[in-house]
Amino acid sequence: MNDIARPLIARLENRQARIGVIGLGYVGLPLALRFAEVGFRVTGFDTDPDKPRKLAAGESYINYIPNETIAAALARGLTATTDYAATGDCDALLICVPTPLDRHREPDLSYVLDTARALLPHLRRGRLVCLESTTYPGTTEEELKPLLESGGLRAGEDFFLVYSPERADPGNPRYDTRNIPKLVGGVTPACRDVGIALYAQAVERVVPVSSPRVAELAKLLENIHRAVNIGLVNELKLLTDKMGLDIFEVIDAAATKPFGFVPYYPGPGLGGHCIPIDPYYLTWKAREYGVHTRFIELAGEINHAMPEFVVRKTAEALNARGKPLKGARLLILGIAYKKNVDDLRESPALELIERFQQLGAQVAYSDPHIPHIPPLRRGRIPLASVAPTPERLAATDAVIIATDHDAFDYAAVLAHAPLIVDSRGRYREPAGPVVRA
């Protein structure tokens, strides 16, 4: 172990180090709270001034993180700012910024690289920089390392650079930052050792790997595994619809096998910060090696087409009742990308709203976790959530279950809605007004 690593590891192990978390969203905020919980001094950084302001006031902006948790972290010394000059006071800097796709569906590393440029003037010897954002294999060593070294310091000698992918599952009551195993890959063995020393203080199990590239690809594999299997059951949903079979009954029957099968369930499409995006990071990188990842791309095509299937099934169900889609009064139940969270990123429900509007339907939505839809895209009509009262349910032509939050009263929906288009399998024995989509 080099002489620069020893004092930093000691500061991490006795929890005297200051931790900086850059990006205070669904990944960064829980991470900052966890490090504060175990006794570290933590500074959070975000370019959105609203987040530090709310945190300073003890307010949570994520629905499953209570205000009391924020208050407890503040009492332990958590601070938040938009001023990146304060990164110079941090011993470890954890980068948790978005890695979206650009308009050509290729990796957009602008948030990561802009963050690195902001850190560069304040980077000092003996510090740790860790990238947590999901990305393609090679990003840490080919993009981040040269940029950070452009100031004259060398990774593994003067500062330490690791990749440790986030594995957050928003709203999951069983797994959180504390008990989700943490992969750590360093650009040198000393970098890896420093990364292990950091995360071992806050995470129950740290899993070292041989390089950042292994950790980067492992993270992509986790999400591609889900995307491909969801693509498979979504394709089977299209088939079972034609065959007159219930895909959910089929999956539940297969899941009784106690080995060799993991149940995945279909829906109206993929959403969130990972599953709809991450596979394209690997397909893009694979082209550098002359490999066409057809299997992954096919799953993406199937999943991307599912909102249109829901629209078609809604139109057919209305038509069977003598009502055209144009002018129909529709109520979308749930617009978050997954149940019981307030995260809109890449939600297929937004695609449904846009498509129904394009076809002339009158669309309202109800989501207890998302009171307003911001005007995220050109042409989208901003909407506010409405309460699914018996009167409103009865006055709609169709209720579309896009995200099956537990907060909804599904018995009341069944009792009052004239037509229910269920894309999530909430009604496992569809009958009466329920149509599977």
Mean pLDDT: 94
Choose one word for the global shape.
Answer: elongated
| Highest-level CATH class of the largest domain | Alpha Beta
User: What is the terminal-to-terminal distance?
Assistant: 58 Å
What composes the largest sheet? 8 strands, mixed
**Physical arrangement of strands within the biggest beta sheet:** 3-2-1-4-5-6-7-8
Per CATH, what is the topology of the largest domain?
Rossmann fold
Q: Going by CATH, what is the homologous superfamily of the largest domain?
A: NAD(P)-binding Rossmann-like Domain
Figure out the total of helices.
14
Task: Produce the secondary structure layout.
Blueprint: H1 5-13, E1 18-22, H2 28-37, E2 41-45, H3 50-56, H4 67-75, E3 79-81, E4 92-95, H5 110-119, E5 128-131, H6 139-149, E6 160-163, E7 182-186, H7 189-199, E8 206-209, H8 212-243, H9 247-254, H10 278-288, H11 294-320, E9 329-333, H12 348-358, E10 362-366, H13 390-395, E11 398-401, H14 410-416, E12 420-422, E13 434-436
Parallel strand pairs: 1-2, 1-4, 2-3, 4-5, 5-6, 7-8, 9-10, 9-11, 11-12, 12-13
Antiparallel strand pairs: 6-7
Helix pairs in contact: 1-7, 5-6, 8-10, 8-11, 11-12
